Amino acid sequence: MTKETLVKAVAAKAGTTQKEAARALDAFCEAVRDALAAGEEVKITGFGSFSVKERSARKGRDPRTGEELEIPARRAVVFRPGSELAAAVRGR
């Protein structure tokens, strides 16, 4: 599903225009991005939670040359599905 099809689906389910749905989706994405950048966790009951995880530096290998290299530490976004979302995906 692309952003365009998501906007259409949200507009249809909410009974609103696609322009309003696009504005709401953009605002949601911006709010989540800002919270994660500030190190906060975003929890949406029944859907899931977004958080930032610190990944430590580690050693790796270049698959083409086999040369060992250092992979730097970084922050990564993690999503954990909520129980309702997980059940819907499993088909319950």
TrEMBL record:
**Recorded GO CC terms:** cytosol
Q: Which organism is it from?
A: Moorella mulderi DSM 14980
Q: Keyword set for this entry?
A: DNA condensation, DNA-binding
- Alphabetical list of CDD domains matching this protein: HU
Which family is annotated?
A: Belongs to the bacterial histone-like protein family.
Gene Ontology biological process terms, A to Z? chromosome condensation
Q: Which Gene Ontology molecular function entries are recorded, alphabetically?
A: DNA binding; structural constituent of chromatin
Asked if the keyword Cell inner membrane belongs to this entry, the reply reads no
Q: Which residues form the signal peptide?
A: none
A Pfam family that this protein carries is Bac_DNA_binding
Protein's name according to its UniProt entry: DNA-binding protein HU 1
Q: Which InterPro entries match?
A: Hist_DNA-bd (IPR000119), IHF-like_DNA-bd_dom_sf (IPR010992)
